[in-house]
Amino acid sequence: MANTLRIAVGSIFVGLAVLALKLLAWWMTGSIALLSDALESTVNVATALAALVAIRVAARPADDGHPYGHHKAEFFSAVLEGVMIIVAALLIMREAYAGFRNPPVLEAPFAGMAVNAAAGAVNAVWCWVLITWGRRLKSPALVADGRHLLSDVISSAGVLLGVCLAVLTGWSVLDPVLAGLVGLNILWSGWKVTASSLSGLMDEAVPESTLAEIRAIISDKATGAIEAHDLRTRHAGRVTFIDFHLVVAGQTTVEDAHAICDRIETSLRRSLPDAQITIHVEPDHKAKHSGVLVL
Asked: Domains, the chain, ranges and CATH?
């Protein structure tokens, strides 16, 4: 969790630096497209702050009021980020519409584009850091922040292309047109971030590949049992919740059944370190002859 917090704090400083560069690029050129790029970067700073707060809340241990922990706080942050991305996109499209009606005259365009390109390069590197480490640390907030930055990198490239074409062709209307297209791209990105985060809040099951791995571990390590059924999974941040019913022979002692459960839990946590596992042991007449058969 310390690594997650350090990266979240780093996002705030990177966001502020990139915002300053993009505002400088807009001030130098007067470009609406570059202004749209700067507007999105204000959201980057706000979402980085939201991610930091969510990660700190998610790190709190379980308590009487939240016996399953606070892990879902990161999903709330990711939903907030998605909504803020959508708001930024709408603001950008509004500026693009105003620019389309009254195209601006660009000043010092190439110097401004160079500054904006530097900001885009910083964002590209940090985007890779956020997504890579967010997945490694199983942090939805960091991954959502990284995907948001990825949309920013793409939009920055589009903005630079638009400004360059506007300068080379003399068609100043290209500047607001590209800003509008960037706004549409960001709008789509915001929807994807929001939708994926809502799935976590709705207790969506783990991916099929992870579920297959869980079933294989139970089948391999439940020697002495008969079957496992009613397997259910969900994920909340970096924590995976697993629960199922384990059927054993009626004469199996409590100690032997507990040993089987311990063996399964140890193997599952070796594959999923933050897993929280609940196993309900049942006698053989409760068998459903379905689910996970023990090898």
From this structure: 2-201 (1.20.1510.10), 208-293 (3.30.70.1350)
